[in-house]
Design goal:
Strand content: 35-45%
Strand order of the largest sheet: 2-6-7-4
Number of helices: 0
Radius of gyration: 12 Å
Structural class: mainly beta
Distance between the termini: 22 Å
Helix content: under 10%
Shape: elongated
Largest sheet: 4 strands, mixed
Number of strands: 7
Length: about 80
């Protein structure tokens, strides 16, 4: 639950068995920073715009990810 302040660097992994069209939204809390980061990791052989993970490092940083085809998440 990231509604509360971060207690340090946190991470989460995207769903392992998404369906094309699934969307995941992530919004960091107010104390997100270069030391209190939120890392979003891929699952299995998926990629996130070609990467294995992305990192949010700004207060209230937000991202939406859409599963567009087999093993591919895109950032919107």
């Amino acid at each position: 639950n990231w509604g509360a302040p971060l207690g340090g660097a946190e991470s989460a992994t995207l769903p392992a068995s998404p369906t094309v069209g699934d969307i995941v939204y992530v919004k960091a809390p107010s104390n997100c920073s270069s030391t209190n980061t939120v890392t979003i990791n891929k699952a299995g052989s998926q990629t996130i715009d070609g990467e294995a993970s992305i990192i949010l490092e700004s207060p209230f940083a937000a991202v939406s990810l859409c599963y567009v085809e087999s093993n591919i998440w895109r950032i919107f």
